[in-house]
Amino acid sequence: MKLHNKIAVITGGNSGIGLATAHEFKQQGARVVIIGRNPVAVAAAAAEIGGDTIGLVADVSRVADIQQAFGTIRERVGRVDVLFANAGIAKFAPLTDVDETFFQEQMSINVMGAYFTAQQALPLLTEGASVIFTSSTVSHFGMPGSSVYSMTKAALLNLAKTLAVELAGRKIRVNVVSPGPISTPIFGKMGLSEAAVGELGGAILAQVPLARFGEASEIAKAVAYLASSDAAYVTGTELLVDGGMAQG
Ligand code: NAD
């Protein structure tokens, strides 16, 4: 029960890594607030996590939505001890095929969304709170077709370092978890055919020293560590949970 009585907010908490982390946080004693874009999925996930879990709908690419969500959190629970800014999308395309819409969609969800999630949570963050961003192992090497996605994830590495220093006066810790390939619904949302996803999966797998995809629960354990007082002296850093992929 390392998160006993903590209030933990998770964006993208209705699916994949966010949902697994919501379960882990709950098991560790936290009260969980999940934020997602799809109302049906959010309600189903909140019910699945159970207990007093709160499900809120917001599109993190819209600052007004984030503002409204944290307004509700202020009214309903009054504070945030753990913020897991995890919502994100992944779309791959070669340089020649990227247009403004493609570029802006990922920037506005993965970068702007994470940034303003932190900003809007800030008044509610308690002394000693933990903020965790979800980056990716792809921040550390070039993967063909991933230019926009990888840029968005690399941006979060510096955001965490900067906020770690900026918020240290309030004893707020800011860190990053960087997953390798994890079996979640994200691969089905990339706009690729099933065959292309299979091909991409095979190519990725060949680059993972531990020779398997990770499980969302394995990221959840790492996030729970960063969220807990076990990581009380850990700030501004990145925890790679990628089967060794970034070292290859
Ligand atoms: P997922 O598709 O299962 O979950 C993504 C979550 O983000 C969903 O809950 C979705 O509702 C939410 N989301 C997306 N756009 C949103 C928006 N505009 N507003 C609010 N919520 C929004 O995928 P996942 O694999 O669990 O991904 C979670 C995070 O992990 C993402 O940031 C992703 O980039 C990152 N990541 C995933 C992998 C992987 O292999 N699965 C690897 C590295 C990093």
How does this structure look, described?
The radius of gyration is 17 Å and the shape is globular. It has 248 residues and is α/β, with parallel strands linked by helices. Helix 5 links the parallel strand 5 and strand 6. The chain is built from 7 helices and 7 strands. It has a single domain (7-241), classed as NAD(P)-binding Rossmann-like Domain (Rossmann fold). Helix 1 packs across helix 7 (216-227) and helix 4 runs parallel beside helix 5 (147-166). A 7-stranded parallel β-sheet has the order 3-2-1-4-5-6-7, with helices on both faces. The protein is 42% helix and 17% strand.
- Which structural class is indicated by helix and strand composition? alpha/beta
What is the string of SSEs from the N terminus onward?
EHEHEHEHEHEHHE
Number of structurally distinct domains: 1
Uncertain ranges = none
Ligand species: nicotinamide-adenine-dinucleotide
What's the CATH H-level homologous superfamily? NAD(P)-binding Rossmann-like Domain
CATH class: Alpha Beta
Q: What strand order characterises the main sheet? A: 3-2-1-4-5-6-7
In the CATH hierarchy, what is the architecture at level 2? Answer: 3-Layer(aba) Sandwich
The level of helicity is 40-55%
Radius of gyration: 17 Å
Total strands: the figure is 7
